[in-house]
């Protein structure tokens, strides 16, 4: 996981039985708070330094996750990141990204509440990013949150808005998930 933070997603994967894990983050203070079950799996270093010299990171990787990370890079650096990941990927590997959805009326609060966001994405611009880096989009998914009642109400609202808008978003959720595969896999 790129940008693993305090390792909660890695901890979840470990709990689900995934044994071979690797996390990467640049915040040196994380070493003090990482949960013991995954602390040894996290490498604290600069991303570009890691990509220049991955050492023995556990590559090739079957899956790479960058949750709430790609928007912190310029589009050019996003392409650079995805391109530099390719040599570390196993055949049939997948890269999963989560980012605010600027095609949704609900995405701006996530995008603009963080001044470190350098790029904004829609499913269409994510397809362009993938193509520029030599990937194809395998799937898009909405990130749904809230109680079942709120999701039901949200579905009704989106149905109404979709009926009255001349152009509705492909995905309504405030954040969306993209699964990528390198071309040829």
Written description of the protein model:
- The chain is an alpha/beta fold.
- 33% of the residues lie in helices and 22% in strands.
- The protein is built from seven helices and six strands.
- The protein has a four-stranded mixed beta sheet. Strands 1-2 form a two-stranded parallel ribbon.
- Helix 4 links the parallel strand 3 and strand 4.
- Helix 4 packs across helix 6.
- It is globular and about 55 Å long.
- It starts with 7 loop residues before the first helix and ends with a strand.
- The mean pLDDT is 93.
Features:
22% strand; two-stranded parallel sheet; 6 strands; 185 residues; alpha/beta; single chain; four-stranded mixed β-sheet
Number of helices: 7
Strand order of the largest sheet: 3-4-6-5
Strand/helix succession: HEHEHEHEHHEHE
Overall average residue pLDDT: 93
Unreliable residue stretches: none
Tell me about the largest β-sheet: 4 strands, mixed
What's the Cα radius of gyration?
A: 17 Å
| Percent of residues in beta strands | 15-25%
The counted number of beta strands is: 6
Strand and helix layout:
Blueprint: H1 8-15, E1 23-25, H2 36-39, E2 42-44, H3 47-52, E3 61-67, H4 75-85, E4 89-100, H5 108-111, H6 123-133, E5 135-142, H7 148-164, E6 175-182
Parallel strand pairs: 1-2, 3-4
Antiparallel strand pairs: 4-6, 5-6
Helix pairs in contact: 4-6
Quick synopsis:
This protein has 185 residues and is of the alpha/beta class. The chain has helices at 8-15, 36-39, 47-52, 75-85, 108-111, 123-133, 148-164, and strands spanning 23-25, 42-44, 61-67, 89-100, 135-142, 175-182.
């Amino acid at each position: 996981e790129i940008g693993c933070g305090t390792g909660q997603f890695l901890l979840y994967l470990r709990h689900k039985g995934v044994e071979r894990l690797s996390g990467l983050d640049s915040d040196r203070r994380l070493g003090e708070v990482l949960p013991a079950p995954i602390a040894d799996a996290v490498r604290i270093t600069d991303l570009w330094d890691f990509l220049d010299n991955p050492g023995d990171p556990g590559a090739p990787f079957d899956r790479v996750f960058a949750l709430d990370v790609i928007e912190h890079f310029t589009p050019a650096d996003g392409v650079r990141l995805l391109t530099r990941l390719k040599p570390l990927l196993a055949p049939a590997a997948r890269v999963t990204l989560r980012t605010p959805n600027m095609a949704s009326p609900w995405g701006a609060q996530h995008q603009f509440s963080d001044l470190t966001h350098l790029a904004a994405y829609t499913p269409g611009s994510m397809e362009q990013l993938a193509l520029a880096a030599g990937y194809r989009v395998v799937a898009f998914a909405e990130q749904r949150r809230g109680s079942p009642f709120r999701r039901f109400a949200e579905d009704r609202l989106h149905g109404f808005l979709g009926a009255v808008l001349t152009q509705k978003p492909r995905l309504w959720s405030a954040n969306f998930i993209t699964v990528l595969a390198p071309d040829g896999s």
